[in-house]
Amino acid sequence: MTSLVPGVLRDEPQFARLFIGQSLSVLGDRVSFVAVPFAVLSVGGSATDVGLVAAAGLVPMLLFTLVGGVWADRFRRHRIMLVSDVVRCAVQGLIAVLLLTGVAEVSHLVLLMIVFGTADAFFMPAATGLVPLVVGPDRLREANALRGFVLSSGLVIGPALAGGLVAVAGPGGALALDALTFAVSAAFLARLRPRETAPEAVEDMAGGTFLADLRAGWVQVRSRTWVWSGMGAMSVYHVVVLPSVFVLGPVLAEREWGGAASWSVVVAAFGIGSVVGDVCAYRLKVARPMALAAAALAVASCQAVIIGSGGPLALIAVLEAVTGVAVSLFFVLWEAALQTHIPQAALSRVSSYDYLLSAGLMPLGLVLAGPVSESLGVRPTLYAMTFLAVPTALALLCVPAVRRLPAHASGAGSGTGGVRTAAAAGPP
């Protein structure tokens, strides 16, 4: 029976604790992904309100992500994550109570999601740098593959569970489950005993002050063409494509597809594709991984036009599954590139710029998606999203540094055991 347990879980007990806690938390996140838009609609909110609430959870990324990156490189990362989990548990629990008692208003959801997003902004950079402190460098690829598999599997199980919970207990019941998963994750983090951060400092990164540390992280970004161009392409994906999933997809489902249950089918299909993409990424050995990643991003950027195609629900679900494969390929390959080529001591700061320039900018798209769709129509807006996003991804493929980036690091200054966990604002 023990042979069925992945070796990294048997051999790395600290990673096993992190993995179990985060796996349950991912399930709750996927439930809330379906529940929150319908929570807004259940209290009389409009498409614009759906985007406003979603944006409220992401605006703090603009304000606190860089702070979180510096803190995560300075302090114990798992403790930052623990505090974040406790705060997010309290927020989701309060939202659930407000919804279940029938007193929730859109303004309540906006304010609470701002608090939630603030805690999220500190969690993400800390999580980025934690994995190499709980798993040996020779098991990093296996650890990342397991995490990616759980993230993708959550897209299959979570929406199915969310659809049932929303139908039976309403959005409040679904968000109560999310609060519980944060509590469980916090309990596992409290028992975690990671290694200390590697003592060696990165060249020119010993400024000591907050601003000096922040500038040193930016040097790591701007000195690598493939990093800043990849972040730019991801920014377009998050600002232009993902609002079609977070805002316009649920609105279209509510109007034409029959509500949350149908939308859950589409999201679950995407999750199935993501699982396949994780398996492919684990097995593939690519000499130039970022070239494949850029091509995958172009396919992933077709989500908007698929959702707005007007085709049968089954066809939309199948095509979304294809984009799920592409999304997983892109993010796994991107993460592998960062963990290979970015020094561990700079990893949280580099990732904080990553989140800022991608997920942190997504509120702009979320806020604009509703008003633009009300002016132009939902489907024309979805088509325009694809027209902007796909050429951007193809432009990334044209960057020589992206096409030529090797799978393995060489020379001084390359990453030694660094790892970047999947971003929260990545695939839906």
Automatic annotation (TrEMBL):
Keywords: Cell membrane, Membrane, Transmembrane, Transmembrane helix, Transport. Its main location: membrane. Gene3D superfamilies: MFS general substrate transporter like domains. The keyword Secreted does not apply. It is found in: Cell membrane. Pfam families: MFS_3. SUPFAM superfamilies: MFS general substrate transporter. InterPro entries: MFS_trans_sf, TM_effector. It is a multi-pass membrane protein. The keyword Membrane applies. Coiled coil: none annotated. The chain crosses the membrane at residues 50-70, 82-104, 148-168, 225-248, 260-282, 289-307, 313-334, 355-376, 382-402. This is MFS transporter.
